[in-house]
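[DERIVE STRUCTURE TOKENS]
===
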Amino acid sequence: EEEPRLAGEVSSSDDWYNVIQYGDILEAVGHGLERHDIEPEGRVSLSPSAHKMSAKIGVDEQVEPRPGDEIELQLHARSGHSGYHGLKFDVGAERLVCSNGMTAFVADQTYEQTHGEPFKPQLAYHAVDSVIEGAETVEQRLEEAQERELMNQDEALLVLHDLGIDEFLENPTTDLINAIHHEVEDPDNPSLFETYNAATYALTHLSEDMPEYALDQGYERAAELLEYGDGIPHPDILGENAVQNRARTLIESEDPEADEYWEGETETVRELMEQHEVEA
């Protein structure tokens, strides 16, 4: 007779399922910070069922990609008690000028494991070391993103929709437009850095008090503005893809005007397609 399986111990397959306790994760991060003589501090967000956990832990490092715009680096730890959610550590940050949350835009500073293996405290140590020692990389990445510009703020808006930032907002287009106006200095030349800040501003301040564990996916989508392979995406390609995707959706719509994000969007998309010299 087959012995009963303990809940949370074994998955539905023959592989062992290891429950990674949130306390063990935070304790390992604390030990990693103590090795650098840093007193652990931060905040933890749990889902109501406690099946998801998100922690933002300060590492006593700041970068300033442009004068007066200070960003405080953090270690972002996420885990969950399901086969889908393992354990992930990556770059977290908070933009001090307006408390925008940020995360995960330097791939080689990400560490993760699944529930298919026992908890590895050394991942937390490596992650702490990586964020502290990688401050220069983060600053350089953000500085480079200021030099790369999209066509205009309409294209920036389409890019944010294409990334799915709108899915986290109650009034998607209005909120994204407000965020762009808040962050973009020159509407005719929005940089990837400004567009990223618009995304994180919308997620942090306009998402109707959505908890951080629920916004994690949104922050990861926003991070696509700052990461492509080992560098920064090319704005021409990023913009062109968003415009083409939107053009295709409008063409396939039975009532394009009714499905527009804003009045006159169809004509704007057509103009952007001409600027990119592509056809739908």
